[in-house]
Each structure stands twice: as C-alpha cells, then as structure tokens.
Amino acid sequence: MPGISTKHEVGLAGRVAVVTGGGTGLGLEIGSALAREGAAVAIASRNPEHLEEGQRVLAAIGGRVLAVPCDVRDAHAVRRMMRHVGEELGGVDILVNNAAGNFVRPAEDLPEKAFANVVDIVLNGTFYCSRAAGRAMIARGRGGVVLNVVATYAWTGGPGTIHSACAKAGVLSMTRTLAVEWARHGIRVVAIAPGPFDSEGAADRLWPSPEMEARVRESIPLARFATRAEVAQAAAWMVSDQAAYVTGECLTLDGGGWLGRGVLGADEPIPKVRRRRR
C-alpha cells in the first residue's frame, strides 16, 4: 500500500493479529501495516469478496495471512473464528476491533432496527471479539493488546450519527474498563479515534456531496483529511512494545478537528490588544 514504510519500525515479528472488518478500507490498511511490521494477520469479514481481496493484498506483502468469514454480531461465530485463528496461526497476540457501520440520518428519522444493527456491530461485536480474544490471551499467559477503533464523537456527540456515536461511546468506556480489569494479565486495551480520512466508502455515506466534503475539511484546523496510511501507522505503534506503558488511552488522529475553535475560529489571527493606560 502506498505511504506505508516497508521497514520494520515498531517490530511485530512473531505476533499474531486479528483485524475485524479487515478485508477493505481502514481495516485492510491496518492489517497491511501490521503485516509489514512482521505480524501474521488474520482478517475477518462477513463478505467473502472482501476477504478474497484482502487476502490477495496481504499475501503480496508477504508473511502469514488468514482470511476468516465471521459476523461479529454472532458471539458463537466469533468464538469459532478465534479458535480457528489459534489453531492455524498459533494464538492471538493482537486484536483490532475495526468492524463498524455508519451513515448520516437524523435521529427522528432513524428506524429502530438501524439503530440496533449499528449498536450490535460496533458495541456488541467489539465485546464479543474482545472477550474471546481476552480469554485466549489469559489462557496462554503471554499478555496481548486489544485496539478499538472509535471516533471523536464518542465524547463530543455526533448529530446525524446518533447510532454510531452511542455505540462508540460504549466502546470507549469498554476500552477503559477492560484496561483496568485485564492489566493484571499483561493485556493492554487501547483505542484510536480517527477523524475524517480519505476513504471512498466514508465519503459516500458521510459527506456525499463536494459541498459537504468542503465543509468538513474546513472544520479541521490542519485543513486536510488524514490518509489511511497515517491512521494505520498510528495503530501499529499503539499495539507495539513501543507503547508498552500505554493502556486505557485513546489516541486522537483528527488534525485538531474536535477541539474548540473559540470565537475567532482556526483561521483568524489573534489580534494584538494595546493595553490601556490607567
């Protein structure tokens, strides 16, 4: 993938990583970054076509790769997937909970089933995968890392995305709760919160018009979207030994987009005020 170094900069050789939603988009980019760092990577997805494409991309990088069909909403399927990864690759050291669903819809127009479906994928699916991986890590006694992909509206709120905002807020709380519960087992639980990044899928759902995309871009103090490679490299660092003393934390990657801009805004120079003589 362009933009990702081929050098082992954070070093994940000998580790086994599972990436949910790993066949396309950000999940595949993260899986690629982990593979380039030496990890064996298992990607999970409901879509066989996504798995096929993801496996092709990861195989081209080299190393061990496994594609596993799995719907994270199904706790039994998740347990089978984790067992299969353990049998084929020798255990799970890293779990990346990336599977998600999102679209823009006012709360008053959001069907109950749509709300429940997103919560089921994002919140319940993250718990099912984390519990299955955590149990395996505890049983092996070697520790491990769980990385959850959230969003800044988990703490700011997200008008138009109440389903995803509620689910991601739960995942952020889960991150901090499990970080404390599982620290004694040598398991770190962390999160990243990407802001807008270059992605055709996200563009179609979240800013489908050039005007909307321009407004989103203008709201970011750094005045650009992230690249998927930037987000993936941060994820690789978070699960590496370089971040061994980080747990329960969420790394924000949004160009300052969630920060308060004040009354002047990001682009307005701060005026020099001449002090009055008394």
Summarize the structure.
With 278 residues, the protein is an alpha/beta fold. 44% of the residues lie in helices and 14% in strands.
What does this structure look like?
The protein is α/β, with parallel strands linked by helices. It has one domain: 3-Layer(aba) Sandwich (Rossmann fold), CATH 3.40.50.720. The chain is built from nine helices and seven strands; from the N terminus they run βαβαβαβαβααβαααβ. It has a seven-stranded parallel sheet with strand order 3-2-1-4-5-6-7, with helices on both faces. Helix 3 runs parallel beside helix 4. It is globular and about 70 Å long. The N and C termini lie far apart (64 Å).
Annotation keywords:
single chain, alpha/beta, Rossmann fold, 7-stranded parallel sheet, 9 helices
Low-pLDDT segments, ≥5 res: 1-6
Query: Roughly what fraction of the amino acids lie in strands?
Result: 5-15%
The whole-number mean of residue pLDDT values reads 90
Q: How many domains comprise the coordinates?
A: 1
- Which CATH top level class fits? Alpha Beta
Within CATH, the superfamily carries the name NAD(P)-binding Rossmann-like Domain
What's the layout of helices and strands?
Elements: E1 16-20, H1 25-36, E2 40-45, H2 48-61, E3 65-69, H3 75-89, E4 94-97, H4 112-140, E5 144-149, H5 153-156, H6 162-182, E6 187-194, H7 200-206, H8 210-218, H9 228-238, E7 250-253
Parallel strand pairs: 1-2, 1-4, 2-3, 4-5, 5-6, 6-7
